[in-house]
Write a structure and sequence with these properties.
α4 runs parallel beside α5. It is elongated and about 65 Å long. The longest helix is centred in the C-terminal third of the chain and has 15 residues. The protein folds into two domains: 91 residues, 2-Layer Sandwich (Alpha-Beta Plaits); 138 residues, Beta-carbonic Anhydrase, Chain A (3-Layer(aba) Sandwich). The chain has a five-stranded mixed beta sheet. A two-stranded antiparallel ribbon has the order 1-4. With 257 residues, it is of the alpha/beta class. The N and C termini lie far apart (60 Å).
């Protein structure tokens, strides 16, 4: 067997978080027995797209004897993963595009999904995901779709979705991840939908901090949803022209409570 670059996983460092899995476009990584595993040498291209997604530094590149990278095998493997319905992050977190049917002139029957890709959780979506590039990105607090009955038709249509919970997840991780996404994707616009609770303001701060760092001209619109009726209690559009920072826009909820 020839020598080539291929990933190496340090099982002592790996904590099984699974963030590396969706970062591998070839599907070469899975979580097995609580650890990240390379499921096939011929599926790894050795380029290391997964390295930056491992918070423990458990993945490195080494040069050793290994099977040659096989694009045909990768295609067959990804097709198999798409046809496998598993509940946990492994194949279930693999990136995929979801075709949306054209909207009928008159809506009859049940409402349809407007989700155009997978995964959607900010913790799992790779910064370089193709569905984020030059997109209108919708960042929603994960409680929002349960409160807004027409979330798909009103907010999600035509947008790439990221779902987050600043109360339960790592907000510092969100800040860094959003900077990486804005650097890589160069999106056209950002819409943030949060709930009318103080802790939900954390996601707004993280988005604006990442925007100011990576794409200062990127427009950000914030919608705040009431917890009683599910209506928009405040909407902050991006400023047309102002010398003031966005935090100077009136409204007690604009700063996240």
């Amino acid at each position: 067997m020839p020598k080539r670059n291929i990933i190496r996983i340090d099982e002592e460092l790996c904590d099984g978080c699974g963030l590396c899995v969706p970062a591998c476009a070839e599907g070469a990584l899975q979580i097995v027995d609580g650890k990240a595993r390379l499921v096939g040498e011929n599926l790894c291209d050795g380029l290391g797209a997964c390295l930056g997604e491992c918070p423990q530094g458990a993945i490195t590149i080494e040069e050793r004897e290994a099977e040659e990278f096989d694009e045909v095998a990768v295609h067959q493997h990804l097709k198999k993963l798409e046809d496998t319905d598993l509940p946990c992050g492994c194949p279930g977190s693999a990136m995929r595009t979801i075709a949306c049917e054209e909207e009928p002139a008159v809506q009859t029957g049940p409402a349809r999904s407007e989700l155009s890709h997978w995964p959607v959780q900010l913790m799992l979506v790779p910064a370089g995901a193709p569905f984020l590039k030059d997109a209108d990105i919708l960042i929603a607090a994960d409680c929002v779709p349960f409160k807004v009955p027409d979330f798909h038709s009103k907010y999600l249509r035509g947008k790439s979705l990221l779902v987050a919970c600043p109360k339960l997840d790592d907000l510092d991780f969100y800040r860094q991840k959003l900077k990486e996404i804005f650097d890589a994707a160069r999106p056209k616009s950002i819409t943030v939908i949060r709930m009318e609770v103080p802790c939900c303001g954390g996601i707004v701060h993280a988005v604006k901090e990442a925007r100011d760092h990576s794409a200062p001209g990127l427009p950000v619109t914030v919608h705040t949803i009431g917890i009683r009726e599910g209506d928009v209690v405040e909407e902050i559009p991006p400023p047309v022209r102002s010398g003031l920072p966005e935090s100077g826009i009136p409204g007690s909820l604009s700063s996240g409570g």
